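User: Here's a chain of 176 residues. Predict its fold as tokens.
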Amino acid sequence: MNRGLFASVLLAAALSGCAATAHRHNAPLAETGHATFATLEEAVAALRRDPGTDWATVDVDGLREHLLDMDHVTLRARVVSEDLPNGARYRVTGEGDVAGAIQRMTVAHAGMVNSDAKWVVDVESIATGALVTVRAASDQDAEMVRALGFFGFLTIGAHHQAHHWAMVSGTDPHSH
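Assistant: Prediction complete.
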């Protein structure tokens, strides 16, 4: 191979490597464009950084299924709210996979919220989803429950990240 051709090949290889690196690391955007993918990407990166990761217990697919449930409930569930003197009742329904997602999410979330003495949450599964009753200990908290509505209620408790980490890393997601 002559020197000019060899230099051109080396330059092309170097530039393509730099272009690939620039594409991966110097892009002006931080978000991947999809929240579920971004959460999975973040979890996998954290697992790879942790030298103590027990790869035999990692469950990325389990986290994906949970995130799919979150998507189904957040974007596809229908909610009818009823104000109660001490809170609210939500009839949360959906079709197909959405009904199961509603049941899984409401039962799990009720357990987390019930660990706080301010609110008492009861969940009754129905064929198309769940009846969720949230009762507050004070009039001020009851007003908050009614104002938040069902979807605001789902955001209560900064436990989601810890829950997702436990799920993907193979530990008990309900032990935190």
